[in-house]
Amino acid sequence: MSAAPKKTLRIVNLIWLGPAIAWLVIFAFFAIVGGENGFLTSSGTAGWLNIAAELGIIAIPVGLLMMSGEFDLSTGSMVGAASIIVAVGKSYYGISSEAAIALALVLAILVGTFNATLVERTKLPSFIVTLASNMVLMGTALGLSRLLAGTSTISMKDDGWAKDAFATKFGDFNISIGWWIFAAVLAAWVLRRTPFGNWVLATGGNLDGARRAGVPVGRVKLVLFIWTAVSSAFVGVMTTFEFNQGNATTGQGYVFQGAIAAVIGGVLITGGFGSVLGIVFGTMIYGVVSLGLFYTGWSTDWLSTFVGALLVIAVITNNVVRQKALTQGANRK
Amino acid sequence: MKTLSKLLMSAVFAIGAMGAAVAPAAADDNIIFLSGPLTDPFFGAMKAGSDAAAKELGVKYQYSTTPDFNDIVALYTRLGEAAIARKPQALVIGDFFPDSVEPLIKKAVAAGIPTVVFNSGRTKWKELGAIGFVGEDPTLMGKAGGEAQAKAGVKNGICVDHVAANPVLEQRCKGYIDAVTAAGGKAKMITVPYEDTTNDQKLQQAIGGALLSDKTIDGVFTLGPSVAMNAIAAVKQTGRKITVGTTDLSTPALEAVKAGTLLFALDQQPFLQGYYGLQIAAQYNKYKVAPVTEVNTGPFMIDASNVDAILAVSKTYPGIRGAN
């Protein structure tokens, strides 16, 4: 963490450039093949941005957590659990939106604390710990929703402030895009401008070194695990109000999509390296690729093949960029 | 969705096995109806049908099932073995898991128990020696959807397969595509990656993308009531006139049929599968009569012409349609 030479800093500060260029290339590709099919229309743009926004709100804290050297695979179930809490709470118990959302967020804080504590106490890999809590949480959400409501999909109608806050549309653009920008600005500020940001990178870069230097690594991870859980619950709440229904199994796609977006965005999977802007571009790449294919008119059976290939290319490219930066001795964003 | 595949999908979520609710060996004057868990409204409707048949025909019967979808393949098989061991008057059994259930059907037939197969197993019941079959045909289900859309003027349709690689959904799509093609139009299937099966945003935007990519698309066929809602939202976004129809039911889907945003919802009528399943067994026992071909309970079409009546019945007799 010593002062790095100016030139190196400039390279490291450009972690996001790789994903940004990749996004441009991919966007241009789909603009050419899918452009006349409506990919470039405001509706088409809103389509991939809406998807990227929901994924991005989760991918950003997941990326921060990865920078600190940990995984959170319980995000998917947190989305479903929050969704079912809101739907059951409002439809079956008639509680207010405030109370339902508060319940979902409290559960998220508990889940985040549970994950962090278990990882810290047992020293087990967070990959396994959070995979387990993902399954426990999903099963519980499904079981409770069937027990209380007899079904795993629960309709919910709401026209109050929560609908405005989570489901307002500007044309075809969802308000979730605004929440995503807010999440990104907040995370970027924390990472770049606060001591906590330094701690995150230090914890992931060299755990023992960070500990010796007095970084409260346990607390750093606790905050980050709560951050991912609360963000996931937020997305669960948001989609429940937007689609007027809660589903216990919704959100499982985010478990790996969040990590994929972060990795495409240049976050080092073993920690210590990454940028929020990079994750934002990684998420945009994911949004464009996962939706672009539907505009080409080609067979959509191959979608996962595209995403997988993209992941490999992105990781290799990012690795080259990172090697360049790291060989010059810098470990800061 | 509501057939073999749905059960299998739910079984994947199995975490812990609950004890099977096997009744003690009682007097063997029962017909045993082996079916799915009542936590699912679909099977609730099925039991309403078998209850009604038993009451009207004056036969004793027992609805046997697992408590929920946990570890269902193993528990269901065990319940089947227990049922055969009891030597009931007849066995009415859903062939949801062919690999483990079909040997059971053979065993029951070999033990001299009259056996009726319902819901799934339409191509195998005769070969297995069952006395009858009542259920749906996924290809016919898709065909009915395609024909209804073609009649409504659809020339270029898409079938949304939201559970990639699910054989029942693929058959339904094939039936739809064939029917639209036969009427002089064209149609294709779009698939959503498996992990996004319940991601409403992704489903809506994917359907929206497909609609924008080809301005001539004028029909969407979905294979579940929840996806139907996503399709309606996607259609609204395009501002074009696109006909949407779906298989399976939910209350919002029925309300959409009433509002005119959904052309139809195709029902496989689980109530009738329960009713006829028990009736075939009872009448065979009494008179040795049985239908010689498959009895089709679906596709039953719910559209603007009958939706009011169906919504009204759902209020008087909740759960008869199996909608939630």
List keywords for this structure.
heterodimer, A: 333 residues, two-stranded antiparallel sheet, 4 strands, 74% helix, globular, B: alpha/beta, Rossmann fold, 2 domains, 6-stranded parallel β-sheet, 6-stranded mixed β-sheet, 12 helices, 12 strands, 47% helix, elongated
Task: Produce a short descriptive summary.
Chain A is mostly helical.
Description:
The complex is a heterodimer of chains A (333) and B (324). Chain A has a single domain (6-327), classed as ABC transporter involved in vitamin B12 uptake, BtuC (Orthogonal Bundle), CATH 1.10.3470. Chain A has 14 helices and four strands. Chain A has helices spanning 6-12, 17-34, 42-67, 75-92, 97-122, 126-149, 161-167, 176-193, 195-205, 207-212, 217-243, 254-264, 276-296, 303-327, and strands at 153-155, 169-170, 173-174, 245-247. The radius of gyration of chain A is 20 Å and the shape is globular. With 324 residues, chain B is α/β, with parallel strands linked by helices. Chain B folds into two domains: 4-136 and 269-293, 3-Layer(aba) Sandwich (Rossmann fold); 138-267, Response regulator (Rossmann fold, 3-Layer(aba) Sandwich), CATH 3.40.50.2300. In chain B, the strands form two sheets. A six-stranded parallel β-sheet of chain B has the order 2-1-3-4-5-11, sandwiched between helices. A six-stranded mixed β-sheet of chain B has the order 7-6-8-9-10-12, with helices on both faces. In chain B, helix 2 packs parallel to helix 11. The two termini of chain B are 14 Å apart. The A-B interface holds A 34, 37-39, 41, 43-44, 47-48, 50-51, 54, 135, 138-139, 142-143, 146-147, 150-151, 153, 155, 172, 239, 242-245, 247, 249-253, 255-257, 290-292, 294-297, 300-301, 303-304 and B 13, 15, 39-41, 44, 68, 164, 190-193, 195-196, 198-202, 205-206, 208-210, 212-215, 226, 229-230, 237-238, 250-252, 324.
